[in-house]
Amino acid sequence: MTNYTYLIIGGGMTAAAAVDGIREVDSTGSIGLISAEQDSPYDRPPLTKGLWKGKSLDSIWWDAKKSDVTTHLGRVVREVVPGQKRVLCEDGAAFAYDKLLLATGGTPRRLPFGEDHIIYFWTLPDYHRLRALTETGQRFAVIGGGFIGSEIAAALTMNGKQVVMIFPDSDISARVFPPPLARYVTDLYRNKGIDVLTGQQPIGVERRDGRYGLTTNTKRETVVDGVIAGIGIEPNVDLAKAIGLEIEDGIIVDELLRTSRADIYAAGDAVSFYNLALETRVRVEHEDNANSMGRLAGRNMAGKSEPYHHLPFFYSDLFDLGYEAVGQTDSRLETFADWRRPNEEGVIYYLKDSRVRGVLLWNVWEQIDAARRLIAEPGPFNAENLKGRIAAEA
Description:
alpha/beta, 3 domains
């Protein structure tokens, strides 16, 4: 059995950031990283963005050698035994630890049909599979109108492919964008040639002469060369649940990113943490949180006691449009749009109880810190005193 000072379960960006965090504090302690993936850690955002715009695949890799970490790839953890400080894998391998980090991430939600025919886009192998299909295929179906679905649909279209989008909401990103902006984006996608099927759900997919026939609940049939789904993820909490850790939407951690067992930490997509600015527990599935939380978890495992009070942001590119967002960007909240140019450049504020709970920066850049400060303020806020607020801090 191999013994490590620090053992990390997970091989994504959070795990890589944790290794970097450990090394900022402890340059000699042994680090082991166990990942079910066959690839060493890499940046995930380019899978739906940069790699479709000519970015080199070589640019996405994290260098494990620089941090002196031993990676165990293609291994699935079967059990954690906290009393013995051991981790057991399905292939029989066993590892001991002084400190353990659960960076288990999430698993894409599945549809109850067509398992072998649908690419649930999440990992590098998913990217390679789709890339291979685009070498000969011309028409693709994208299931989902949210974060992943909108990016993949745009990426395929910009690469000269015909795309049909299928989702149950009224517009693209309707759960994030206020209705007028969501309608604008949906119209933009249609103007780019995308067949956007709103208010519909796929109910079946079958193989047809080397292609795929997709049927919706309205009996509409579409024949395509590939089917991609981006319908969200479920946090991987089974290991944590099995050892009795507290779970509430994700693995509950304190401000130092410790679980209910002091020698086990958790970070990333699967973690529920209390955010001071929002005054509630949140679980965030984006790059900034993965990197910031992972790094701090590593530092605290190595002996620091630094609270995680960071309010993460996320970003996306949709053709020529781009945005950054921070906080609770939920279209069910009250919203106020402060446009410099309607639907092309401006700031959208999300309010609850006269406080700003989220900010969407639409083609407005380098204002995330200003948005964070605003979310932390007690208010009260309304359309009058928010107009020009972010612009005033530019």
